[in-house]
Amino acid sequence: MQSSHLLLEEPIRMASILEPSKASFFPAMTKIVGTLGPRSRSVEVLSGCLKAGMSVARFDFSWHDPEYHQETLENLKAAVKLTKKLCAVMLDTVGPELQVVNKSEKAISLEADATVILTPDEGQEASSNLLPINFDGLSKAVKKGDTIFIGQYLFTGSETTSVWLEVSEVQGDDVVCVIKNTATLTGALFTLHASQIRIELPTLSDKDKEVISSWGVKNKIDFLSLSYTRHAEDVRHAREFLSKQGDLYQTQIFAKIENIEGLNHFDEILQEADGIILSRGNLGIDLPPEKVFLFQKAALYKCNVAGKPAVVTRVVDSMTDNLRPTRAEATDVANAVLDGSDAILLGAETLRGLYPVETISTVGKICAEAEKVFNQDLYFKKTVKYVGEPMTHLESIASSAVRAAIKVKASVIICFTSSGRAARLIAKYRPTMPVLSVVIPRLKTNQLKWSFSGAFEARQSLIVRGLFPMLADPRHPAESTSATNESVLKVALDHGKASGVVKPHDRVVVCQKVGDASVVKIIELED
Fold first, then answer.
1. Reported pTM
2. What positions does the domain Pyruvate kinase barrel occupy (predicted)?
3. Is the pLDDT of residue 60 over 90?
4. What angle do CA 366, 312, 52 make, to 5 degrees?
5. What is the DSSP annotation of 97-133?
6. What is the reported pLDDT for 212?
7. C-alpha–C-alpha distance, residues 467 and 458, integer Å
């Protein structure tokens, strides 16, 4: 990876930094994934989240039951209707996640330099001396000197809500640890992360399969976030499972890279997955702190050139309890955008944070500012060079549409698509203007009934940077017989005008299929 991969657009006028940010219909090109929970499940708060810029809702099944998540989802659907803003659904699996079980839910105080025993006997009650865990193979996986972190959602071993342990000895199935920092654990479940240790558990657990085949099928989930993806085989196995679950054969799989093992097999995982989530919380524990930024830059670069969405997590932890992010966090969000991230994933900040709407709004504003100085020219040249020649037909059309839009200073690119692939390829070149993806539904039949496809494809573009979907009238095919698909184009332009993206005398680049040929055309709007 070349170090000069992304530079800021030069020069930046210092005076421009003081100019107030302008509000727009699309808060930012970079998308925001919000994790829904106790603080973000009412129709009112969810409406606020959607208006602030959330385009994907994440349901984390490592806590609470399907009924609870169903209630939240029903409220989300009501909020979508109210705000008229599309939102995709992401199901996050539990995977081989180790947990401490605290049935009594009493707070557990742990003192530095004291010892605590981790036991697989879940019948025992959690206390300051004993913590029951949901895995009986920990004693075989760890050795003296290994590091273990325990906490609820945010855990670094530096704050008082999570604890850092060092293994001192193994006694049968129990693991005796020395406590390295004073902390108080509250709640019913805490995540346990054993640093750089392989846990012999399946990536897609039986519990995950049960949730996917019931809750996932019922709600036609758009994305499956595959926790603790360690090998390409994990993705293949999940895809095979989804292919047998009704409509879920269309669900996209995002591999969550959370440990050294996933990191070592990154290239083959990227090849199999539809997108990547860089879980920086767990990775930040497995990797030395000075290596985290390097992994982020390398991984995002690889995702970008492969044209697959990349999502970065754990950016504004402090906003879980505060209204403003720290300076380091604000810079971190901007750097994620400049490094090439498609979306920012908010976890505890929206799940149990005090300011879910404000957090989404703040992150969106930082992303929008970073996008203004993103060096698109350099990025475009590098992407074209990487793709090489001869280009595929679709790749050539996509890059030409972006080049034309930049040369004529178009306000928007409109792309007619039925699978969403053409629009994603255009977005891969990171145009400076929004890409309006007009998804034309296709009629299909299983010999018993007719149905339209297209809703999945539209929602799945909600995680791709710069891509904004709209579902067209199914009576207008994506492959037009005439040189202009006037009626659908008019609807798309009206949508652009209503959202303030398109104004009179603006130029618009349109990308569509006409018969067997693909056409890129430039239109200048009248009054």
1. 0.90
2. 30-360
3. yes
4. 45
5. -EEEE-TT---EEE-TT-EEEEES-TTSPP-SSEEEB
6. 97
7. 10
